[in-house]
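Inputs:
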Amino acid sequence: MAHVLVVGLSHHTAPVDVREKIALAPTAYLDALARIKAGPEVKECVVLSTCNRSELYAVTESYHGGREALEHALLGFEGAAGGVKDEHLFRYEGAAAARHLFRVASSLDAMVVGEPQVLGQVKDAFKVAGEGQAVGPVLDRLFRQALEVAKRVRTETEIGAYAVSVSYAAVELAKKIFGPLEGRAALIVGAGETGELTMKHLKAAGVGELLVANRTESSARELAEAMGGRAMGLGGIEAALARVDIVVSQTGATEPVILRSMVERAMKERRGRPLFLIDIAVPRDIESACGSIYNVFLYDIDDLGRVVAGNRERRAEEAEKALEIVQAETARFTRWFEGLETVPTIVALRERFDAVRAGETERVMAKLEHLSERDRKLVEQYGEALVNKLLHGPMAQLRQTGAGERGVQLAGALRILFRLEDAAGTTGAAPVEGGKREGAPAEPGPGEPGA
Amino acid sequence: MLVVAMRWLGVGFALAASALYVRTLTGPAPADGPLKDRLALAAAGCMTLALALRAIELGTVPLVSSSEALFFYAWLLLLVFLFLVRQAAHRTLGVFLVPLATLLALVSAAMMGPPAPVNPLFLNRMFALHTVSLFLGYSALSVAFCAGVMYLLLFDEIAHKKVGRMFARLPSLDDLDRLGHRTVVLGFVLLTAGIVFGMVWARSEWGVAWVWESKSVWTLLSWVVYLGYLVTRRVGGWQGQRAAWLAALGFALSILTLLGSDALLASTRHVF
């Protein structure tokens, strides 16, 4: 009986100083896979290592042996000596292991729930393991399904639709005001950390022209160079207000840097074109009265904070929906996996009956040489019909029971009664051909959605 | 008979499509299947057939009573939507535009009686030009109205710093504002053309180009509002929120002119 296992540690179970010892670069995956596969226990394996988690997914011969082999392998990762305690590790088996992977792939287990990077990392891990000939029918199915689950979660819930950091929230707002940001211009005043981060995101979102204003021209120039913008002193702000679409301000000034009168004059020149002011400074850089000017959108740090808090709540709600998807998919995988037990039995039973029929037909035919061609065919068909009729009931029953404990019991009984052990005893242990689908048996059971 | 069946079949499809579109905004997740577009297409198809059969029956554009004109208008709205929806930024327009078209189609189909003899006044090329340009104009202005409503809903969330459903599902303010502007320009041109055709027609029938009666006055009033939209935008920089309100006001006047002509406005020269 094969087992699906995962052993690992994540930001839920281990602090960063432990995780960093175990972390593995994707370039080191192949090596690790080869070492793990060298042992007798592990039949299939995938290594997934990111800054938040290091996990080994495997199909093993036995539960305990497999678990030990995986723990050993995990601790054997470079520099892990000491520091890692048993309590830092988690282990899941069977349905729980599948559920864990589905949650990881769809970013429900992430530090910031809903951030999509982890999906790419899961894809890479699967790909590398395939290249390393470490993936067989079970993990192939499991990981493909995990990618499907992630896609479902992304399209059927809005888990990724809400920005959960101040800088991203600002960019999302800019996009909702201006549409695509290509060709838009932005001004950054001061040089705070969040301000710079916001600018980076804006630039990544397509903002073309970038102006950098600072109290001291030299630091403005420095920042402008780093971000690919144009530097100027604070005196240039008013002129810039008439030209740019987005302003991010984060200076250390104690008095407002951007006054209502400045914005009013700028808006006249802009002929009503909207202006988005983002004030991340405390104390504030932009007079709050600017927000009441027509077509001026002003967000201060508290406004952005509220947006982010609301988005976090919404993400949590979406995560609930996503968990339902994960649950359903886990059940689907489990049905398939348990079906692996019964399918070979069905095949073997059919083969056994057919072999007996063929042997007996041949024997009786030898004594019936006087029969015409047509009669010989009749005898042949009689044998086939008999076998089919006799097998039909049990086969249908077995297929219908399909997966689950009862299916496994029935299959076991058949194997004993008809001595099928040599043919079908080692389910899922069939030789594995690096990540190919052909090795996987057809899905049994009624109501099973197509793979 | 076939005309009536097609008409109601069209309304049925439109109702189903409307329900699905509204769900994309109010439903739990943005289900973005192709079914609703196909339903809208089916509705437009049935309505096209109904209108074509009716036009053959009449020998002129099927706009000879207010209910028929409304049905034609609903059909135009669907066509305009099906054209616009091909752009991703306009997808959510269906949430407002399709139900509007459905409502108009439903009301008009319910109001429609058995075909009466056609007023000979209508068997005139100027009649067709007058009505068709006006309704083309009204459909463009309806899009501007829907874009305006969407703008105001989204603006409300952004301005009050309570981003939520609209924020997640509507296109950007800029997209909506530009769509509104473009459709007002188009609608204004068609509206003007429709009025001019009407004047030419009136002169040939009655010898005077402009008859001061309620329908003409109300039409002129909405025309002035749209003119105001364009002027304030160009001169005063009234884009965005104020433009959206003007588009809504103009549309309200147009609809009033259109729907209320029989009862409220007691028109004399305009049969509808």
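Residues 125-159 of chain B form the longest helix (35 residues). Flag for discussion at group meeting.
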